[in-house]
Structure formats: C-alpha cells, structure tokens
Amino acid sequence: METNQDRVVASARAVLPATERRRTDLTTHGFTFVADEPHNGALGDGPTPTEYLLMALASCTAQTLRQYVDYKYDTAGDITSRSTTTNPSRKARSATCSARSR
C-alpha cells in the first residue's frame, strides 16, 4: 500500500450557510474572513472571491520582491504591489500585476 507523504502547508475552509445566497464564511489557521458577491449594486459584507485572489497575488508579489531586495540590496523601503482585473468584453478576463519600491 502506498502512503501519501505530502505535508499540508496551507488549507482553507469555506462555508456557505443555507440561509445565505452568496455570503461565505472563510477560515484558515484560526483567522476568519467573509467573502461576498454583492448583487444589484449592494456593498456586500466583505471582498469578493476575485478580490481575495487579487490580494493574494499582490501580497505574494510584494513578499517575493522583498526577499529579492533583502538578498541583493540593503533596503528598498516600502514595496507596493497592485493587482487588477478587467472584463472589457465580458467574454474573457485579463489580470495585471505591477509593483514599485519607494
């Protein structure tokens, strides 16, 4: 019998209660978040799933740049990373990510 020796390094749980249409409760490592997909112009109770993905991409980019800068140089000051997505044709999505250091 073969055993799976992969170690889980990250996990997340999403619960969409029966009483909700889109508001989802998220947990990871003891942290709790809310994702919501507002409808008809409403604000919603939290970021959308797409916004969480963009935040993850921006954070990963900033942390990767910080590691590189720390290795290559002394300091770069603040690092700002921005991720955006557009849907101009409503058929295809595009995403961009940019970063800068001050």
Average pLDDT reading: 82
Count structural domains: 2
Ends: how far apart?
55 Å
State the low-pLDDT regions, or none: none
Shape: extended
- Report the strand count: 5
Query: Rounded to an integer, what's the Rg over CA atoms?
Result: 18 Å
Major sheet: arrangement of strands: 1-2-3
Tell me the major beta sheet.
3 strands, antiparallel
Fraction in helix: 10-25%
Structural class: alpha+beta
Strand content: 25-35%
Strand-and-helix sequence, N→C? EEEHEE
Give the number of helices.
Answer: 1
What can you see in these coordinates?
- This protein is an alpha+beta fold and 102 residues long.
- Helices cover 24% and strands 28% of the residues.
- It has two domains: 12-42, no CATH class; 48-102.
- The chain is extended, with a radius of gyration of 18 Å.
Question: Could you write a compact summary of the structure shown?
Answer:
The protein is α+β, with helices and mostly antiparallel strands. The chain has one helix at 49-72, and strands at 13-15, 24-28, 31-35, 79-86, 94-101. The mean pLDDT is 82.
Which features characterize this protein?
102 residues, alpha+beta, 2 domains, 5 strands, 24% helix
Topology:
Elements: E1 13-15, E2 24-28, E3 31-35, H1 49-72, E4 79-86, E5 94-101
